[in-house]
Design brief:
Number of helices: 11
Helix content: 25-40%
Subcellular location: Cell inner membrane
Enzyme class: hydrolase
Shape: globular
CATH class of one domain: Alpha Beta
Distance between the termini: 36 Å
CATH architecture of one domain: 3-Layer(aba) Sandwich
CATH topology of one domain: Rossmann fold
CATH superfamily of one domain: P-loop containing nucleotide triphosphate hydrolases
Function: Part of the ABC transporter complex PstSACB involved in phosphate import. Responsible for energy coupling to the transport system.
Organism: Actinoalloteichus hoggarensis
Membrane topology: Peripheral membrane protein
Largest sheet: 10 strands, mixed
Length: 258
């Protein structure tokens, strides 16, 4: 079931380095929120903080709140692994387990969680591959290695793997940056379909992509060298691209910097 995310007064640090300052964002369920902005502005850092993935970097910490339907994912009683099952992630480069079969790639998360019933695993595999628009292409070669697929197919396999554990939220960190235009279009079409069932947050450098796939867009910027990244504004995507409130947003979208 898709859930809402509310980020409140989020500050993110790596050791003494203040990476992101005072971010407050509301991400509604069953929609796509895009994070855009120049390199180094903190958009991927904020994305990874939503499911505590940034914590794998030594010295990383946050101040503020990330609420999933009102529950703070940073509460002391919350297990980060449980957070990552609820808030799935797809990375910039396709990262299937290359020697593991297509089928085993999809159900890896379920097996890790203790599911052993073959019929159940087969059902989840098919449902997830259908959900990722990949079933028809691979149904006759499920025992082939995941690494044997094309780049675009591998990324859809990673999406199938992410949705197999039925998360409430799907995070995507530049999921098309390593793909050709045809594969990119396939992923964009898939995002549009997936938002019927999931809350999706996507980081993208491609502003045309943000305009095509997202319902709301957040623009992040870096005020100056050595300063933390900040959220400049967030609004409906159509408004951000046609009539932004802040001049910095207009300058970035029009290509004056970034």
């Amino acid at each position: 079931m898709a859930k809402r995310i509310d980020v409140k007064d989020l500050n993110i640090y790596y050791g003494k380095f203040h990476a992101v300052q005072d971010v407050t964002v509301a991400v509604p369920p069953r929609g796509v929120t895009a994070f855009i902005g120049p390199s180094g502005c903190g958009k991927s850092t904020v994305l990874r903080s939503l499911n505590r993935m940034h914590e794998v970097i030594p010295g990383a910490r946050v101040e503020g709140q990330v609420l999933l339907d009102g529950e703070d994912v940073y509460a002391n009683s919350v297990d980060p692994v449980a957070v990552r099952r609820t808030i799935g992630m797809v990375f910039q480069r396709p990262n299937p387990f290359p020697t593991m079969s297509i089928r085993d790639n999809v159900v890896a998360g379920l097996r890790l969680a203790g599911t052993k019933n073959k019929n159940e695993l087969d059902e989840v595999c098919e449902r997830s591959l259908r959900g990722a628009n990949l079933w028809e292409e691979v149904k006759d070669r499920l025992n082939r290695p995941g690494g044997s697929l094309s780049g675009g197919q591998q990324q859809r396999l990673c999406i199938a793997r992410a949705i197999a554990i039925q998360p409430d939220v799907l995070l995507m960190d530049e999921p098309c940056s390593a793909l050709d235009p045809i594969s990119t279009l396939a992923i964009e079409d898939l995002i549009t379909e997936l938002k019927q069932d999931f809350t999706i947050v996507i980081v993208t450098h491609n502003m045309q992509q943000a305009a095509r796939v997202s319902d709301q867009t957040a623009f992040f910027n870096l005020p100056g060298v050595g300063q933390p990244g900040r959220l400049v504004e967030i609004d409906e995507t159509s408004r951000i691209f046609s009539n932004p409130t802040e001049k910095a947003t207009e300058d970035y979208i029009s290509g004056r910097f970034g």
